[in-house]
Amino acid sequence: MKADTGIVTVDDLLEVNKHTYRLLSDPKAKPKGLPGFEFIRYNFDKTSHHGGAAYYHEGSGTVVLAHPGSATAKDWLVTDTGILLGKKQTKADVAAVDFAESVMAELASNKKLISGVVETGHSKGGRESQAVTAHLASKGIIPCVGLTFNSAMISKKTKLPDIDYDHVNLRMTGGGLFKTDVVSSVGTQLGKNADFPNPEVKNFIQAHLLGSFDSGLKRLSEIGGMAVHDLIASCKKGLSIPQINEQAMAKKSTTEIVREHHPAPEILGTNMPSTKGKIVGETATESIQRLGEGSRFFKIHDKSKLASIPKVGDTVQITYSSGSIKAAVKSIGHQRVNTR
Fold it and tell me: Alpha-carbon distance 61 to 242, whole Å?
């Protein structure tokens, strides 16, 4: 979260979701990496086992509400069973809405401005997040956007036909039927289901884990820092997550990308016929390679001169030779590259 503006990014919401799980075991756990936002409180409803965490940015009037996924026997045996049986509302859904209303009532009683709500949650918590988003949208008083991660389905009765919900669920996929999150592939989501590709995911169990978004966001390097409102707007226009990432990259210069990785970078010239390292960024015409983890040395490759275009996150060896029109690009996987 950006302390001076109250803008909430995808990275921020991933961290907030992790915090909700920490709060389940330690209700006094302090949030990490949320500058500018006050942690209002965490509530655990003993009847339904719903958990809710609330954050507030006074400068912008932004409220962030988050809900953890299944973590207790009651979650799995009662709430999750109710979801599978198609219940319109579980007790946890009701508790999530009550929690949201109580937070806003508390802020209002303290004469705090509420300009908008950002809702989030993972798995079961994603469904509870959508219950709150639907509730606020039906009231039409406070704008609410929702970004969920591998969310469980909602009841079709929750979704009203005359409301255009500002909600996107990120569904993790490793690129195949058995490598895609099952939980968010079944049933209905309030808004749009957007596939979040991550080739490191090898099965549907790994695809469902919240932690799998960490490696996914490293590959789709622009998505994490994107404002949630902007991501949702782009998804609603029909753009895929890779397309959104590509467009964001295209707006950046090579210099900006390199300096994001090192404050005093050194760009190597044409005197190195072969380089090894990770592709850390790209523009429409160039691939940016970092020569070693943590290194300040970079090589900028003209895409038109490469035999194949490596993806951001790939570790490759790129070799130029006088006998070839284009440079050879060889994957070296996770091989350690020596830094200079």
Answer: 31
Strands 62-67 and 116-122: parallel
Q: Are 88 and 155 in contact (CB under 8 A)?
A: yes
Q: Give the relative orientation of helices 212-219 and 10-25 as an angle to the nearest 10 degrees.
A: 170
Whole-angstrom distance, CA of residue 149 vs CA of residue 132: 15
Pairing of strands 286-290, 274-282: antiparallel
**pTM for the full model?**
0.81
Q: What local confidence, expressed as pLDDT, does residue 340 receive?
A: 36
- Cα separation, 252 vs 276, in Å, equals 24
DSSP state of 178: G
Burial of residue 94 (number of CB atoms within 10 Å: 0-12, 13-18, 19+): middle
Query: Beta-carbon neighbour count of residue 108 at 10 Å?
Result: 11
CB 226 within 8 A of CB 252: no
Contact 327, 299 (CB under 8 A): no
- For residues 15 and 33, the answer to whether their CB atoms sit within 8 Å is yes
Rounded (to 5) percent helix, strand, coil in the chain: 35, 25, 40
* String of DSSP letters for 107-165: HHHTT----EEEEEEETHHHHHHHHHHHHHHHHTSS-EEEEEESPPPB-GGGS-TT---
Question: HSE on the CB side for 223, CA within 13 Å?
Answer: 29
Two tokens at 271? 């005197």
Give DSSP secondary structure letters for 206-274.
HHH-TTHHHHHHHHSTTTTTSBHHHHHHHHHTT--HHHHHHHHHHTS-HHHHHHHH-SS-EE--TT-SE
| Long-range CB contact pairs, 90-93, < 8 A, 24+ | 90/48, 91/47, 91/48, 91/50, 92/45, 92/48, 92/49, 92/50, 92/124, 92/128, 93/50, 93/127, 93/128, 93/131
Per run of 10 residues, the mean pLDDT along the chain (length 340 residues) is 73 96 93 86 97 96 97 97 96 98 97 97 98 97 97 96 96 94 97 97 97 94 94 97 91 89 91 91 91 94 95 93 92 55
Token duo for residue 319: 């070799």
The strand pairing partners of 176, in sequence order, are none
